[in-house]
């Protein structure tokens, strides 16, 4: 009813040579576009999102100073 399996009974994987994908000019252009997403003073999109979150929390009357400090730490550690 039950069959036991052993390590020696397992099939062996077949090793195929890996092909290196060629980078097309379009893919290289997309990579260059991602690098150029820096705004004024080296602030990127993710930094702008963090700033917006802090502003929304302050406008909403957030009393959690630890949360604001943690977000500010992440923001400043990314900028500097």
Question: Your description of this structure?
Answer:
- The protein has 80 residues and is mainly alpha-helical.
- Helices cover 51% and strands 0% of the residues.
- It has helices at residues 25-35, 45-59, 65-79.
- Helix 2 (45-59) runs antiparallel to helix 3 (65-79).
Note the topology.
Layout: H1 25-35, H2 45-59, H3 65-79
Helix pairs in contact: 2-3
Quaternary form: single chain
Largest sheet: none
Number of strands: 0
Structural class: mainly alpha
Beta-strand proportion: under 5%
Order of helices and strands: HHH
- Count of DSSP helices? 3
Helix content: 40-55%
Q: Whole-number average pLDDT?
A: 76
Radius of gyration: 25 Å
Calculate the terminal CA-CA distance, rounded to whole Å: 65 Å
- Low-confidence segments, given as residue ranges, are none
User: How would the global form be characterised?
Assistant: elongated
């Amino acid at each position: 009813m039950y069959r036991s399996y052993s390590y020696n009974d397992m099939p062996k994987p077949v090793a195929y040579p890996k092909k290196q994908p060629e980078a097309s000019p379009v893919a290289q252009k997309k990579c260059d576009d991602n690098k150029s997403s820096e705004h004024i003073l080296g602030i990127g999109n993710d930094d702008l999102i963090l700033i917006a979150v802090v502003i929304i929390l302050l406008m909403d009357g957030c009393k959690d100073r630890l949360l604001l400090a943690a977000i500010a730490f992440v923001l400043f550690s990314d900028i500097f």
